[in-house]
Amino acid sequence: SKVWLYAGHRSQLPEAGSYLLLDIPGAPIFLVRDKDATIRAFYNVCPHRGAPLVRETSGKVSLLRCTYHQWTYD
Q1: How many whole angstroms separate alpha carbon 46 and alpha carbon 10?
Q2: On the CB side of 67, how many CA atoms lie within 13 Å of its CA?
Q3: What is each CA distance from 44 to 15, 47, 48, in whole angstroms?
Q4: Model-level pTM?
Q5: Are 46 and 66 in contact (CB under 8 A)?
Q6: Beta pairing partners, 43
Q7: How many helices (H) and strands (E) does the chain have?
Q8: Distance spanning both ends of the chain, measured CA to CA
Q9: Which residues contact 39 (CB under 8 A, 6 or more apart)?
Q10: 34-63, pLDDT tens digit by residue?
């Protein structure tokens, strides 16, 4: 449906590389603050094999890494 969902507060993503994995049934999404301080949302799947890019509920990464082939995304 088309409704707004509260994903989190920007203070939960304090610096570049900070991420937050959302618990939305049927939608594996995470938020990440990029190098330009913009908060972006992505599906938590590698476009190649569908493996998760992040596993912890929150944290900080310098690169997103596929757990299947170890491909990296910046």
Answers
A1: 24
A2: 9
A3: 20, 9, 12
A4: 0.86
A5: yes
A6: 29
A7: 0, 6
A8: 31
A9: 10, 13, 31, 32, 33
A10: 999 999 999 999 988 889 999 999 999 999
